[in-house]
Design brief:
385 residues; alpha/beta; six-stranded antiparallel beta sheet
Length: 385
């Protein structure tokens, strides 16, 4: 193995001990596999722990649906326009992958029930969520809509003819491979433990030939992350959706930006807990969230392989403005019963509409798959791809 670097915290949690034991028995593991265990171990992984508060002010992060009800309501408005473009079918499917605590689904369905009864009555809302802990919270959150919400696994679903597949902050949590160039040779980051039982980085040759094939040209010491799981994800998406839209909300950039030695010399992997960034990504596996910026160029490319063309790509704040968030804000203010309620609605909307707010750091990618008899529409490539 290559030289060690960055000594990290001594393993303490149950998952850390399991990972340390695995390393002692079988040798180093790729960061991809380490991240997969840290986030998705069936019992001790970050997203599967029943004892962990992940959402809200008391948790580790607050997604857009939790910051303001305007987020889900505005996307519901947008879904109405997509439904109309698809000819208002009698049966319509909205699939949400990685639905978390169900906050978005609850808000979107409430808005559709209130303002678009035709679409609401035609809608079957499918949730695909791996975390059993999250599914339980979502089921409670969505009890009002239990007659039209279904929780399912990919393998349980047959392809449906028309609908929307929606994700919010899903792709950034896919496990990634980390690579660099050391002494002129391409190397991958693996995780090991030293003699004192501390997690350490080590470098070795890439774990697969595919990594060598898809890795961009790197400068000496430059670090990048490669997300190979997006390809498999889009295969599942294509198997589910015959005709319709894939709407992806996340944070990232085109390949030209993410692989810039000048602007991103150390890659984009990061971890956080209690709304604060953690310097040591390898510390406390299972206790903190780990994310990586999404390569939108790859998402666009994988979509095209399955017949999905880009119809829109924009910053989230701009997207919400065009989709009617100000109209939704006015509607909510008119519905508010007190000045305190009006203030709460206005305050929660700030990060979605003000310059420099949370939404300005996110992007929305919309991809459409036409039916076989439709005329293919022009694609709008992602700038920088």
């Amino acid at each position: 193995m290559g030289s060690k670097s960055e000594l990290i915290a001594r393993p303490q949690s149950q998952l850390a001990e399991l990972l340390a034991q695995r390393i002692r028995q079988t040798g180093t593991i790729s960061f991809h596999d380490w991240m997969a265990e840290a986030l998705y171990h069936p019992e001790f992984g970050y997203y599967n722990r029943a004892d962990l508060v992940r959402w809200g002010r008391q948790g580790d992060y607050r997604t857009s649906p939790e910051r303001t009800e305007l987020f889900a309501a505005t996307f519901a408005r947008y879904f109405v326009s997509l439904y109309e473009q698809l000819g208002q079918p009698a049966e319509f499917n909205i699939v949400e992958m990685g639905a978390g605590n169900g906050e978005f689904a609850a808000g979107a369905l409430a808005k559709l029930k209130q303002s678009s009864p035709n679409l609401f009555n035609a809608t079957r809302y499918l949730i695909i969520e791996k975390s059993q802990a999250s599914r339980q919270v979502a089921k409670e959150q969505l009890y009002e809509f239990h007659d039209r919400v279904r929780f399912a696994e990919n393998e349980e679903l047959a392809q449906f003819q028309s609908g929307i597949l929606f994700t919010n902050e899903l792709l950034d949590a896919f496990p990634v491979h980390r690579l660099t160039v050391c002494a002129g040779e391409l190397k991958e980051f693996f995780v090991s433990i030293d003699d004192e039982g501390e997690f350490v980085w080590v470098l070795d040759k890439p774990s697969s030939e595919e990594l060598t094939k898809v890795c961009p040209s790197l400068r000496e010491g430059q670090i990048v992350e490669l997300n190979l799981r997006i390809a498999d994800w889009f295969k599942k998406v294509a198997a589910l959706l015959a005709t319709g839209y894939v709407v992806t909300v996340d944070y990232g950039g085109p390949a030209s930006e993410l692989y810039s030695a000048e602007h991103r010399p150390n890659g984009t992997i990061r971890a956080f807990r209690r709304h604060e960034f953690i310097d040591d990504v390898l510390s406390d596996p299972g206790d903190c969230d780990i994310t990586c910026s999404v390569n939108w160029t790859v998402v666009e490319s994988e979509g095209k392989k399955h017949g999905f063309d880009v119809t829109q790509f924009s910053r989230l704040d701009k997207f919400l403005m065009e989709a009617g968030i100000l109209e939704e804000l006015e509607f909510r203010l008119n519905q508010a019963g007190s000045e305190a309620e009006k203030s709460a609605v206005t305050t929660s909307a700030r990060e979605m509409i003000l310059p420099g707010g949370m939404a300005s750091s996110f992007q929305v990618l919309v991809q459409k798959r036409q039916n076989r008899n439709a005329v293919a529409s022009g694609s709008q490539p992602i700038k920088g791809s």
